[in-house]
Amino acid sequence: METDLRLESSLWVGNKRYLAVLTGWHFKWTEVDKKNRQKKTFSVPVAEVVGVEEGRVEILPQKLVEDTDKDFTVFYVKRSSSGGSYGLLWRLGRTQFSCPSRVLRDQWINHLRSALKTHSPLRPHRLLVFVNPFGGKRKGRQIYHSLVAPLFELAGISSHVIVTERANQARDHLLKKDLTGFDGVVCVGGDGMFSEILHGLIGRTQQEAGLCENDPAVTLQPCPLHIGIIPAGSTDCVCHATVGVIDPVTSALHIIIGDSQPLDVCSVHHASALVRYSVSLVGYGFYGDVLAESEKHRWMGPLRYDYSGTMVYLSNRSYSGVVQYLPADPLLSSPRDKTRCLSGCSVCSRSTEKLFPNTSDSGSLYSSHYSQFSTDSEGEWVSVEGRFRCVSLTCMSSSCARSPLGLSPSAHLADGTGDLILVWDTHPLAFLKFLYRHTSTEDQFDLPFVEVHRVKAVRFSLPGGREEEGHEEIGGSSSRIDEEERARVDAVSRNGSQQHLAERDMRQEVTNEQKTATPFLCGLCCKKAPAVSVWNCDGEILPFTEILCKIHGQLVRLYARGIEDGAAIHNCTVETDECERRRVLNK
Ligand SMILES: CCCCCCCCCCCCC/C=C/[C@@H](O)[C@H](CO)NC(=O)CCCCCCCCCCCCCCC
Ligand SMILES: Nc1ncnc2c1ncn2[C@@H]1O[C@H](COP(=O)(O)OP(=O)(O)OP(=O)(O)O)[C@@H](O)[C@H]1O
Ligand SMILES: [Ca+2]
């Protein structure tokens, strides 16, 4: 196969002659001068070739084709530095080659296209695209049509585009409509839009597999369709943490070449029923209050979080609670080991082998029966009780523009664990120091009132069982998910949040302990602080306080590859000035 695809000949780019070679995995062209001395080499992995076209073709700013019969154009991924961010920006590179004959030209085109088919098996042919026209700065439609659609067309991808008209339309479509023929689902929007796709695809997959999502002990079936994210939201945390940059063109190119990044998902349960799934933040206290406050100021757009964050900080709240957690194996990794989950992460690869032990292609989506924790004994639950500024659980780093390294900088995308961050009640300035460290490289866990644990499951309750009567047990009895159940959870999600917030405001019980802890600038809101907070689950308010969270390793796959190490750009494919600069810097 490899030898069949091999091709070698002289080609011209402008008036320079190159010796071009296609081996199985790479397409290289080396400049040759008049004395036959070899000069600069350009090399593109076949997996990063976007498309091969006859003639001299341009696609940006608009498509122009000069249909000459001895020329062909190769489009490929070209990397450049992303300025402030940690990941790399991808751009569309293009080189127009001239051949001595039409026969040779056709040979090059056929060989390159066959190599693409052989070496990029996960490239999508047909995609279902949902565009939220109201996400972020309301530019979703424009971003898709001007930046993404032309690239999909160039790569020969056919897309069925749905511009949503209401919240949850994308989720409902994925739960109910025929998805035959689609290789993946793309959302153009923010974390809320991604969450819709996540719920639709996970729900659909479990329905088809006859599995009950309510039972936290059930090993859920991984979703067969990949998810692509074109960032057009306010926080775009999932995109930032899986690609490293917020850039629609970079994300579109990852989708086109069929990159594949598994992702852990946390299921959140209350009283033996599934409430929601999360990949980023399940947060009580500060982050719950910021979200609740920010919902009142949606009109501010992305700025609502900074405004609400400041207001909530000034209101100086803390909450009592009981947190129980099931620690992950400390020998595998630690949230304080100062490593980062980068593209090709070895911790995640080892987890893949553990999660999918019987497949040669570890992580194959089609192995129907595997057990995530079958080789582990469940381990011992640890319990802590007290007053917290915030309790946060994150399955990944949750990096975003506000916090370039994220809530937990050493968390892994696909290791089957989450990081539990407990911030005990403390002086307002100490808490500000903790928050501020999220904006720099200073360790936010190196503070006496902060704890972080790598966990497989977490349970939260109010001291003395103040909230709900029901409680959940991993492995305990659970009801079957049916239409009625789904309607109930739906109704809870739609109406519950408002009702829950209203009840919380009405209660406003302040314990004696709290009275001494909170006055600071409480006059700002002219109200007593409530005794309970709300949970922020990837930007949605949960209608329950007492919850059980369970991490499901690698439940979904994204068209991404994790964050590429910017320092390694000197190993990049096509030589650019940036490669040269980085090479010098790295010496
Ligand atoms: C002094 C500067 C402190 C800056 C502190 C920055 C901490 C930033 C941590 C960001 C964590 C993002 C976690 C991701 C959550 C997403 O799944 C979710 C869905 O999109 N987003 C939110 O819930 C949206 C949550 C957005 C939270 C924003 C919090 C902003 C806090 C600002 C505090 C200012 C205090 C100023 C005092 C004078
Ligand atoms: N046509 C629509 N009308 C109203 N709401 C919609 C529509 N389509 C999707 N939504 C909802 O809008 C919410 C927010 O969208 P999205 O996540 O795209 O942007 P955002 O909130 O600005 O960004 P982020 O989630 O990154 O903070 C989502 O929860 C989604 O369910
Ligand atoms: Ca994880």
UniProtKB/TrEMBL annotation:
It holds the Pfam family CERK_C. One of its GO terms (cellular component) is membrane. One of its GO terms (molecular function) is ceramide kinase activity. Keywords: Kinase, Transferase. The keyword RNA-binding does not apply. Residues 122-272 form the DAGKc domain. Residues 466-485 are annotated as: Disordered. Gene3D superfamilies: 2.60.200.40, Probable inorganic polyphosphate/atp-NAD kinase, domain 1. InterPro entries: ATP-NAD_kinase_N, CERK_C, CERK_PH, Diacylglycerol_kinase_cat_dom, Lipid_Phosphate_FormReg, NAD/diacylglycerol_kinase_sf. GO terms for biological process: ceramide metabolic process. This is Ceramide kinase. It comes from Parambassis ranga. The lineage of its organism: Eukaryota, Metazoa, Chordata, Craniata, Vertebrata.
